[in-house]
Amino acid sequence: MKIGIDQISFHTTQYFVDMAELAQARNEDPNKYLIGIGQKKMAVIPSTQDSVTLAANAAAKILTPTNRQQIDTVIFASESGIDQSKSGAVYLQSLLALPQQVRAFEVKQACYSATAALQLACGYIALHPDKKVLITASDIARYGIGNAGEPTQGGGAIAMIISKDPKILALEAESTVLTENIMDFWRPNYATEAKVDGHYSGHMYVDFFDEVFAAYRQKTGMTLANFAALAFHLPYTKMGLKALRSVLPQADAGTQQRLMANFEDSRQYNQIVGNLYTGSLYLSLLSLLENTNTLQPGDRLGLFSYGSGAVSEFYTGILQANFKAALLPKLHQAMFAARQQVTVSTYEQLFQQQLPTDGSTVELDLSQDPAQFVLTGIDAHQRQYRKQY
Ligand code: HMG
């Protein structure tokens, strides 16, 4: 039985900051951000959006009257969770008006957790072939104003429906995983911004990729020539390029050219959004599939998932017969086109508008947020959400 990604969608906010402008404001050469980091625009997240609303806005794009009845599991993957106890998935069930007969829960392991959710969902569907699983991968990447991590911020959410006979990508059974307890990036409970050992994290990312890819080659006998494209977790797009370049010498010239060309398609969306942690690999997959003119049904894709701390996995999937028809490029491109550029100083103000952490009540100004699902405030320690249309 084929099992995998049946549908996939993306949502981000209405604001972005231009990376050349941000570089100028930080007295950096714009090419450091544009080429050295590989980012053009960075999503800016207003306080009326959190990991729950971003996920709901993404998921609403792929829910239909039919699949609503088949989804019996909702998995919320995030490292920007809004509560230590209650899962974001329970809020999603209610905001999206999904049937109450679902199991809803949250998973966490830095940027890796959506891949954990995907693998678990595939195993679950193998036992329950008539069911579907909704996965959301939703995060807001925050390092702080003026520090080295700043140009690698961003935010948004991916939603995916996992089922048998998937319309987009059927996963193959073999994968290789690696876990090692390292301190490259983490966020203590008291912190709203990540702690990071930036250069070390980049080295570990490439080391983990080299190790899981070598293990995959050894396990399966496959080489780079077996892949039409590789998609990477992209905290910033230069990171994936570094990992790809670390293995390209293993390939013949034609394979190198193909993988490089497909990498360019796979980073287009990430270059104009930034990091969305759990969703970044899947935004890259979406970018590849919606921008490619060369990939064909039957092609094999390799996917590298990395979550600091650290857990990584290399796995593969086969493109399905009508994968192009199942995608939503017009919807995503219209969302990108409607975004509004903000100045660096407006971005800084929006970044600093954090919700109170002392339990006080707050009512947010919703007049600027065009999203379907918004956070309206906090009352009696409870987040208040609204569906605007
Ligand atoms: P930095 O130290 O300011 O930058 O921070 P740099 O000096 O290393 O320069 C960056 C690149 O720009 C270098 O290229 C420079 O040569 C180049 P590289 O050597 O890397 O190929 N450069 C230029 N290029 C063209 N023209 C110029 C120019 N000037 C310089 N004029 C750093 C960079 C990424 C360290 C920082 O932004 C950071 O700490 N980011 C956050 C950490 C991160 O994203 N790590 C990625 C791996 S860990 C991961 O992926 C997991 C994560 O998503 C979290 C999770 O799992 O939850 C982060």
TrEMBL record:
Residues annotated as domain Hydroxymethylglutaryl-coenzyme A synthase N-terminal: 3-164
Residue spans crossing the bilayer: none
Domain Hydroxymethylglutaryl-coenzyme A synthase C-terminal: 179-247, 262-353
Residue runs in coiled coils: none
Enzyme class name: transferase
EC number: 2.3.3.10
Keyword Transcription regulation: no
The keyword Transferase is annotated on this UniProt entry: yes
Pfam family membership, one: HMG_CoA_synt_C
GO molecular function: hydroxymethylglutaryl-CoA synthase activity
Keyword terms, alphabetized: Acyltransferase, Transferase
Family designation: Belongs to the thiolase-like superfamily. HMG-CoA synthase family.
Protein name in the entry: Hydroxymethylglutaryl-CoA synthase
Source species: Loigolactobacillus binensis
